Amino acid sequence: MSPVSETRISQFRKGVVELAILALLDSGELYGVEIVDTLGKDPALAISAGTVYPLLSRLKKGGLIDSVWRESPVGPPRKYYQLTKRGETELEMMAVEWTGVSESIHRLLEAHRS
Amino acid sequence: MSETELSPQARALVEEYLTSVRDALRGTDLPRSEILVDLRTHIEEAAAHTDGSVDAVRSIIDELGPAEQYRETAEDTAEGATHTGRRVLGMPYDFTPPSTAKFAARWWNPADPRILMPKVWGVGWTINFGAIAVKLGIMRPDDEDAMPFGNVPDRVLVLAMLVPTVIAAAGVIAVALAWRTLPAEVPTHWGIGGQPDQWGDKLSAFGFLLLMGAGPVLLGWLRGFRRGTSRAVRAFWAAGTVMFSTLGSGLVGVTIHSANDASSEWLIWMIIIGALVLMFAMLVGMSRLGLAAEWRDAPKLRK
């Protein structure tokens, strides 16, 4: 595979994982391990910690999510992530775009099968 | 490009925006002039499809976002590029100017599990000490933000920079004390087994080693710790120069030790490993003290 298409696929994946993280946080704040565990459990997504943490850092830098430290019953404080106002707006927009793309792909695949 | 005539006010608006982006990019290591040329082209091309009024130009600029945000996006893209890495003979290389973002992405990046990263500048790899700390269970991957060391107390950073300073000074003192008893020629190179296989004039031999140890430390105080530098910059100078000072002063010790034909089999390896371990310890130590300060000051730290 050429480096260019590899980059493109990884960009595409990154976008999907970003959307997954934002969607997950929409139902409430979570700390890193919870996010990794939830996303990792889904075999179709198969997202590893090595993907999640750099993205969390990027999303935070972009102002889409924010974090707070909270005491943990075991060990040191945990960093909890939550959506910002901008993150909520972004999630809504991305969700609409994603639905559009996935519907189109679905239609194409249906046509291909018949 | 077909010229839609921009009104003078619209033109002034474009210039004003470009100036604000130029100011925002100042102090970063991004290719400023290239970015500005691209940006101007983009705005002019977008404006060519409009009536060229102030309002039309304003909406183009609004879409690009404020200058600060534009800088962040540009930095993000540059950071992303550091990860893909170009390769020569199977080795990654990078000759773009070093930046704090690059040090953060490659020397101390706990979020990224890769231990070997492309060098900040040059050909080959560098160690991502953050990934090692996570593997050892000393750090969690998200203990640091994108720009690390943001909460390390200032006096901790000064103390950290004193570590390489003391080590470099120890090398100077050792040479001063041993000078009279040293032969005119001292070992300058050792074989794999630690036996000296090259000898040289002692002035140039020690001059080189002391320069290697103390030079970066001096630069660290002058450049890294000058007024207005960020905590991350200071932390990376302190950790980076500890490597040089340990190697420099360590090799001074080996040279003095082996000047009288004493063997130094494992000493050199110990020094190299010691320098890496010390650098690691400095990064972990500063990071943890920064975290402790962050937790202490966190307004929302509660159950």
Features:
heterodimer; A: 114 residues; alpha+beta; Arc Repressor Mutant, subunit A; 3-stranded antiparallel beta sheet; 66% helix; 12% strand; B: 303 residues; mainly alpha; two-stranded antiparallel ribbon; 7 strands; 61% helix; elongated
Describe the structure.
The complex is a heterodimer of chains A (114) and B (303). Chain A has one domain: Orthogonal Bundle (Arc Repressor Mutant, subunit A). The longest helix of chain A is centred in the C-terminal third of the chain and has 29 residues, at 85-113. Chain A is elongated and about 55 Å long. Chain A has a 3-stranded antiparallel beta sheet with strand order 1-3-2. Chain A contains 4 helices and 3 strands; from the N terminus they run αβααββα. Chain A has helices at residues 3-25, 32-41, 49-61, 85-113, and strands at 30-31, 65-70, 78-83. In chain A, a hairpin with a 7-residue loop joins β2 and β3. The mean pLDDT of chain A is 87. By secondary structure, chain A is α+β, with helices and mostly antiparallel strands. In chain A, α1 (3-25) crosses α3 (49-61) and α2 packs across α3 (49-61). By secondary structure, chain B is mainly alpha-helical. Among the domains of chain B are: 8-74, no CATH class; 154-297. Chain B is elongated and about 85 Å long. Helix content of chain B is 61%, strand content 9%. The mean pLDDT of chain B is 86. The N and C termini of chain B lie far apart (61 Å). In chain B, α1 (8-25) packs across α4, α7 (154-178) runs parallel beside α9 and α8 runs antiparallel to α9 (231-258). In chain B, strands 1-2-4 form a 3-stranded antiparallel beta sheet, with no helix packed on it. In chain B, strands 3-5 form a two-stranded antiparallel sheet. Chain B has a two-stranded antiparallel sheet with strand order 6-7. Chain B has helices at 8-25, 32-48, 54-64, 67-84, 100-106, 129-135, 154-178, 202-224, 231-258, 267-297; strands at 86-88, 91-94, 116-118, 122-123, 125-127, 185-190, 196-201. The chains are: A alpha+beta (114), B mainly alpha (303).
